């Protein structure tokens, strides 16, 4: 490497992670879900995550969602051009302010161990709303597989990269969410849509 002047680039340390590690403020919680996604109770198992949505060349947006593990219904989502803690916070606020959603008394949110979810501010918000919390094991995407699968289907179906503005991108996401919850029939939901299956479970 010296002979040919080759330099190996190093990523700069994330100052937020360094500070969290130094102060030990961020807290990882145990995996109480253990991949028991289908518990037959709407509004109990709430899966959450964030994915990247590149659009219009070099622009980047981020989508945060909360999905019902039992019904596959998308209960709340938030699109932003920043991946700060606010994207996760706003998603929880939208979840709790949605009057159409009835959460189980033992409802809990399951996520990975990302800094958004280990944040003291995020965890304090969940406690404020009476929500429990669970986290996947480190580096194990299978512990939140339905959420990962949803993002995969969304990216296959939505032509998000063609969006010219953030507003247009949000419109495409809104359209897909409405379609997914109300019109997308699924084999593992007894050939019902997520909302139909939710009503079915509540009736039973």
List keywords for this structure.
204 residues, alpha/beta, five-stranded mixed β-sheet, 7 helices, 5 strands
Biggest β-sheet description: 5 strands, mixed
Element-by-element helix/strand order: HEEEHEHHEHHH
- In total, the number of strands is 5
Distance between the termini: 68 Å
By secondary-structure content and strand pairing, the structural class works out as: alpha/beta
Can you count the helices?
A: 7
Task: Outline the low-pLDDT stretches.
Answer: none
% residues in beta strands: 15-25%
Shape: globular
In what order do the strands lie side by side in the largest sheet?
3-2-1-4-5
Helical fraction: 25-40%
Mean pLDDT over the residues: 92
| Rg, Å, rounded | 19 Å
Give the structure's gist in a few sentences:
With 204 residues, the chain is α/β, with parallel strands linked by helices. It is built from 7 helices and 5 strands.
Would you mind describing this structure in some detail?
The protein is of the alpha/beta class. It contains 7 helices and 5 strands. It has a 5-stranded mixed beta sheet, with helices on both faces. A hairpin with a 3-residue loop joins strand 1 and strand 2. The model has no long low-confidence stretch (mean pLDDT 92).
């Amino acid at each position: 490497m010296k002979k040919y002047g080759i330099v190996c680039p190093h990523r700069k340390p994330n100052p937020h992670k360094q500070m969290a590690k130094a102060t030990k403020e961020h807290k990882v919680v145990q995996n109480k879900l253990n991949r028991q996604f289908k518990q037959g109770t709407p509004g109990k198992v709430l899966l959450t995550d964030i994915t990247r949505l590149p659009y219009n060349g070099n622009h980047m947006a981020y989508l945060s969602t909360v999905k019902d593990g039992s019904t596959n219904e998308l209960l709340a989502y938030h699109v932003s051009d920043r991946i700060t803690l606010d994207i996760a916070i706003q998603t929880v606020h939208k979840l709790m302010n949605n009057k159409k959603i009835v959460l189980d008394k033992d409802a809990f949110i399951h996520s990975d161990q990302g800094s958004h979810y280990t944040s003291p501010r995020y965890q304090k918000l969940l406690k404020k709303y009476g929500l429990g919390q669970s986290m996947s094991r480190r580096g194990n995407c299978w512990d939140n597989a339905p959420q990962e699968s949803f993002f995969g289907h969304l990216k296959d179906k939505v032509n998000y990269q063609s969006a010219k503005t953030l507003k247009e991108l949000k419109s495409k996401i809104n359209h897909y969410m409405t379609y997914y919850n109300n019109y997308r029939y699924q084999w593992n939901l007894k050939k019902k849509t997520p909302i139909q299956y939710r009503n079915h479970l509540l009736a039973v």
